[in-house]
Fold this protein.
Amino acid sequence: MSAGLHIVCPGCAALNRVPAERIGAAPSCGRCHTALFRGEPLLLDAIGLEQHSTRGDLPLLVDFWASWCAPCRMMAPEFERAAQRLEPKFRLAKIDTEAQPALARRHDIRSIPTLILFKSGAELARHSGAMTSTDIERWALGVQPH
């Protein structure tokens, strides 16, 4: 049995250790009993981004977007489909650049939508512009650390 992966709960932000061989078995949080994987992107703020990008062991794929952005709105259902297929290998999340302008500045977001893939708190890769769910998956899997 493996030591396990650290998974941050999307509900209460508790850190859960899940054996790697059980990651696909619909694990739930030991504290609040929320499903650790919902098949949908999380909505994050600065605290949530910090928790999920630095405390969890999964690569974190973040869509920086805004409600007024037509390409962002077009990509939203594609990102949702990608979340359904990429979890539990990845955690997917969205950050509204209008609601979180300091995060947009900190991560030098100059155009939206922009996807950033984080691992252990560090940016691994970024892509600006709308993509299909298939392209999102292909891109994320292509840059995922092995």
User: Anything to note?
Assistant: The mean pLDDT is 95. The domain at 39-143 is CATH 3.40.30.10 (Glutaredoxin). The chain is about 30% helix and 25% strand. Strands lie at 5-8, 15-18, 42-43, 60-65, 91-96, 114-119, 122-128.
